[in-house]
């Protein structure tokens, strides 16, 4: 999940004075930052240090990642003319990511590395709004009002995303995660009509790659079934839906990932332990369960609680 490193003092130290996008383009720095939470917490897998907007910047869009805000796009995409600024990418455009993955695979040994990308809808929302949004007004206005432009934009984004993920797979990642973080803003019918075909194209494009595909969004209780059908091996679930309920919706063919509320980590160890045990018990009804938080780690989280949580999950799941 995003911000895995942000609660760590060693992360804040190494990032001091280096912009977020700049740090994603330095393979040695990416390697060190990716390894930090693995060393500290003994988690079972590493998540590549990068961001969902990295391939969009490589495609020619002028953007920045502003601390405390998120991605901000200088000139949002609103017309067919604007779309020309979003070029297709080649693996060379994101060569620094391939280099980072190669360095990491060598360092990590038996610990798997998870690569990732943003899904077309979530990326489109940043490009159209120009930054984070609560209502997705301009995004939905284009989706409903200019379906041709919408489909052209999401098609271009799905091609960029697929190239970005294939580059990571070719460089050696063991699994990929497709983040459609903001798809929860949509009804199931609209998700299926306007978004799912584009995410499905990305996930289908990875079928022969031989790596598990995780598909995650926030507030997606009504979309879980469709997000699985889009072509995922594992569906990521936020904390709002218990994993046993999620499993009934997703069906017996896919595993689940999740879903401890990141806010629980502020409630004291007894609560953390009780809730983590509940998540593990509810996840046991799925054909496979990857324990995780239901969304990203808050920067204010006490790293020692995270270390203890990982140890607890190891202890419970080894029995
Ligand atoms: C929506 C989204 C983004 N980025 C990402 C998503 C999908 C996952 C999710 O839903 O959280 C994915 C992401 N972003 C980052 C990772 C790597 C994992 C990690 O090391 O934490 C991952 C997997 C690094 C990051 N990406 C970002 C940070 C923090 C910036 C910093 O450290 O300077 C990190 C470590 C910035 C970012 N980037 C984005 C947001 C909303 C923010 C937060 C802005 C803020 O609150 O400061 C866009």
UniProtKB/TrEMBL annotation:
Gene3D superfamilies: 3.20.20.210. It is found in: Cytoplasm. One of its GO terms (biological process) is protoporphyrinogen IX biosynthetic process. It holds the Pfam family URO-D. The record marks 51 as: Transition state stabilizer. One of its GO terms (cellular component) is cytosol. Pathway: Porphyrin-containing compound metabolism; protoporphyrin-IX biosynthesis; coproporphyrinogen-III from 5-aminolevulinate: step 4/4. Keywords: Cytoplasm, Decarboxylase, Lyase, Porphyrin biosynthesis. InterPro entries: UROD/MetE-like_sf, Uroporphyrinogen_deCO2ase_HemE, Uroporphyrinogen_deCOase. It is an enzyme of class 4 (lyase). One of its GO terms (molecular function) is uroporphyrinogen decarboxylase activity. It catalyses: uroporphyrinogen III + 4 H(+) = coproporphyrinogen III + 4 CO2. Residues 114-130 form the Uroporphyrinogen decarboxylase (URO-D) domain. The keyword Flavoprotein does not apply. Substrate binds at residues 2-6, 51, 126, 181, 295. Its EC number is 4.1.1.37. Catalyzes the decarboxylation of four acetate groups of uroporphyrinogen-III to yield coproporphyrinogen-III. Belongs to the uroporphyrinogen decarboxylase family. NCBIfam families: hemE. Homodimer. This is Uroporphyrinogen decarboxylase.
